[in-house]
Design brief:
With 79 residues, the protein is mostly helical. Helices cover 38% and strands 5% of the residues.
């Protein structure tokens, strides 16, 4: 079993292992590939890494100098 290959315990989820990045960055290419593979397989974050994930809608902003009205509270709750 090499680094970044999944291992599976009898009843647990798969786990991945990535070797450490060398201080002189001599293993950068291999480390980057294995890290991206591990993140994609175990956490499902490739859309975020590639920048293709959609941004969440903006949270509505209201003045903080006064209490919110009922309509503003409903709008904030819906967001």
């Amino acid at each position: 079993m090499g680094p970044a290959e999944p291992t599976n315990s009898s009843n647990g989820p798969k786990s991945f292992s990535v070797s450490k990045l060398a201080h002189d960055s001599s293993n950068w290419i291999m480390w980057k590939c294995k890290t991206l593979t591990t993140l994609a397989a175990s956490h499902g974050v490739m859309r975020h890494i590639q920048g293709t994930a959609r941004a969440p809608p903006p949270i509505p902003m209201f003045p903080t100098t006064r209490p919110l009205t009922a309509a503003e509270e409903d709008q904030l709750e819906a967001a």
